[in-house]
Amino acid sequence: MADVCLILEGTYPYIAGGVSTWVHNLIRALPRVRFSLLTVLPSRETQREYRYEVPQNVLSVTECFVHEYSVGDARCRGSRRQAFEVVARFYADLKRRDYRRLPELYRLVGDPASRVISPRELFYHRRTWQMLTAAYEDAQIDDSFVDFFWTWRYSHLPLLRLIDAPIPRASVYHTISTGYAGLLAAIAKLRTGAPVLVTEHGIYSNERRIEIEQAQWIYERKVDSAVITETVSPFKQMWIELFEHLSRITYAYADQIITLFENNRRLQISSGAPAERTRVIPNGISLTAFKERKQFGIKPEVFQVAFVGRVVSIKDVKTFIRACRIVHERRPDTRFPIVGPYDEEPEYYQECAAMVGALGLQDCLEFTGRVDVRALYPRLDLVVLTSISEAQPLAILEANLCGVACVATDVGACSELLNGRTPEDRALGPSGLITPIADPAATADAICTLLADDQRRWAMGAAGSERVRRFYNEQNLNFAYLELYRHYVGLSERRRAQVASDS
Amino acid sequence: MAGIGFRLRKMLDQESYLATIQAYLYSGLISSGPWLITVLVLGAISLLQRGAGHWSCEQTIFRPTVVYAYAFSLIVVGILQMPLTRYLADLLFARDFAMYLPTYVGALVLVGGIQLAIGATAVFGFADWPLAYAAHAVMLYVTVSLTWVAIIFVSAAKDFYSISLAYVVGGIVSVGAGYGLQNVRGDDGYMLGFALGQIVTFLLLSLRLVVEFPSALAVSFDFLRYLRRFPSLAIVGFSYNLAIWADKILFWLGKPGRQVDAFLHACELYDVPIFLAYLTILPSMSLFLIRIETSFYRAYKGFYSAIVHKRSLPAIHRERDSLADSMRLSIGRLLKVQGTVSLVCIAAAPYLVGPLRLDWAYLSVLRIGILGAFLQVLFLLASIALLYFEFRTETMLLTLAFLLTNVAASWITLQLGVAYYGYGYLTASFVALLAAVIVLDRRVAALEYITFMQQPIG
Question: Which of A1, A2, A213, B194 is deepest in the core (most CB within 10 A)?
Answer without folding.
Answer: B194
